[in-house]
Amino acid sequence: VWIFGYGSLVWRPGFEFTSSKVGFIRGYSRRFWQGDTFHRGSERMPGRVVTLLEDCGACTWGVAYEVRGEQIAASLKYLNMREAVLGGYDTKLVKFHPQEKDGGEPILALVYIATPQNPSYLGPASEEDIAAQIIVSSGCAGHNIEYLRRLADFMRYFCPQAEDKHLFSIEEALISILPCLCYTEDSLEET
């Protein structure tokens, strides 16, 4: 079984896997339209995390993880709690296209997507409003800024040829609000 991650799963899958590949799926755009009251926010101040929006001309980059044998049941149990129960995501099968030139045919992968029917779904907002919400939100997995930073870093370092205007516009808006913010490998520091 292959599992496609396009948000925090790209840097913290949280389950054992046999192999992983960077690549993309077609027909979806990544958007910071999902509320998070557990991992990156609270009931009082929900964070903003990504979901996928159907968009026929778009593609979303991420990581596909291959799970085998006993890894399958363990990973699906873990992801059901992390993504479905706590996150409010539904599952779909998508065609994943590996980045490698010799990656072969597309792979069918399981993906978790939050829909507008989800009670934590926040929907669209301006990049500035999303950045402002991210700045003030923190949950048990860490600050919402870290989530945005790690996702932007993944795109910069692993998919430099790909565009994600929504993601980088939010990052730019956040930096314009907090110009003294410096990114480091493991933490956020103020200078």
Please give a structural write-up.
It is a single chain. The chain is an alpha+beta fold and 191 residues long. The protein has a single domain (2-183), classed as Gamma-glutamyl cyclotransferase-like (Hypothetical upf0131 protein ytfp, Roll), CATH 3.10.490. It is 28% helix and 36% strand. It contains four helices and nine strands. The strands form three sheets. Strands 1-3-2-4-5 form a five-stranded antiparallel beta sheet. A hairpin with an 8-residue loop joins strand 4 (90-98) and strand 5 (107-113). The longest helix has 16 residues, at 70-85. The relative contact order is 0.21. Residues 183-191 have low confidence and may be disordered.
pLDDT average, as an integer? 91
Tell me the major beta sheet. Answer: 5 strands, antiparallel
Number of E-type strands: 9
CATH architecture: Roll
Tell me, what's the shape? Answer: globular
Q: Return the structural class.
A: alpha+beta
Percent strand equals 35-45%
Distance between the termini: 45 Å
